[in-house]
Fold this protein.
Amino acid sequence: MKIRTFLYTIKQGIIGVFKNKWFTVATVATIAACLFVFGIFFALAFNVEYIIKTAEENVSVTVFFDEGLSQERIDEIGEMIGRRAEVTRYEYISAEEAWESFSEQLGEYAQGFSENPLANSSNYQIYLKDVSKQAQLVHYLEGIEGVRKINKSDFTADTLSGINLILIYVFSGMIIVLFAVSIFLINNTVTMGISVRKEEITIMKYVGATDFFVRAPFVFEGMIIGAIGSIIPIGALYYLYLLGSKFLEEEFEILSFLTFLPPMEIFKYLIPVSVLIGVGIGFLGSFFTVHKHLKV
Amino acid sequence: MSETKKKRTREVKGDDPSKYAIYLEDVCKTFSDGVPALSNIDLKVKPGEFVFIVGVSGAGKSTLIKLLLHELKADSGVAYVNGYNLMTLKHNKIPKFRRSLGVVFQDFRLLKDRSVYENVAFAQRIVEKSEREIRRNVPSMLSIVGLAGKYKAKPKQLAGGEQQRVALARALVNQPKLLLADEPTGNLDPYNTEEIMKLLDTINSNGTTVVVVTHNDKLVNDMRKRVVTIKQGTIVSDAEEGGYVDED
């Protein structure tokens, strides 16, 4: 293909966007509406995932040691814990630190103790990457010589792990359904818009235009429309997200445990995904719709 | 090779088909519902000829034009147009084949949103002519059809006769060897009909083979050209410089 033919194709694609105003408006609106709803669920899914993850990160397993265990052995146990893949971080709390912390809670009642009642309470607080791996870690810890007792919350771990799994299924399902509905709606709009121009395609074919020459401007037009249709909801969602998260954090103190992701943490994924969907559907919709009319 | 394939691509018995603008031998076409459209069509048109194809509505004229344009494919027989074997022509070769033709329809089939100039230039763009060539060829062709002053107009701003002239300019701008005109005056008044026919005659006298499908007997009788009459999908007469043979 010569450069002038390529430039002609691009020019015709751009002209097509403005020439068929109602088709452009209808298609952009359909793509924008579908991707807007898609974006809401996308942002919601990311935030819920983030909140669950934050909650999981605060769930810890506490390991206590046999009475009189040497500090050297305690350090060895610490290194063994640190090598585990499921562990994010672990903290050593000595008996003195444990009593200091506890005595602060007891206040004046703490003065009644002459000796540290938590003398055998030095421990490791272990935080996990994924709470569903808690049982696996506990099983490992139970096998370590020198470990006396392990404190854990099976209920919290199981609940969070279960919620996380359910949410993954629910949001994945919703996003797949929305994606399918979006493709169906957008493709229908593109099909209707191009079918109106069937005669134009037929004339081009009669004059001897190749399939590529006929199709390229339509496909380019579809991609431009797809891009516009995806950028509009991204812009709208960005500002709505900023306003919405700020409003919820300021007006609903009861929800203070909720921390929303910074917008760019979501939009660095949402922008490419939305543009890819918009441009991709514009491309595929135009490509296959024109293809139907090329058999002249 | 299958029996069907043998039948579709059978050897030419007589002349060299490439010497003809149109060479049809024993061509048959039946529609998918089983209705026969064309039966045993033999038609040979030499380069530079002017031929009318006539017949009543439903006789098979349009089907014949569609076969010549390769919009439809014959079921059997030998079919060559401008040296292209239509029985074996691959899909990706159709554009090149169609560029060797000019085609004009009763309903003009112009690109409505483009100017007269752009409608004619479009035919040049698809054969990848340079802008300089387009700027030279299109006004020249428009002046031949008498529309040099209306190059900016959109088709809807033109009368029927003028629209058909644009269609003719578009059909001829790439200097095709063969011009197929399907009822080119069907939507025109007598004055414009005469003007278009004069243009076609001029085009023919410059060496382009012209095939005109029509059911306008007056037109055919006035022009005194070769007339091929189709009835119920069969050629019933082929008269040199004859008038319209109305079998009914």
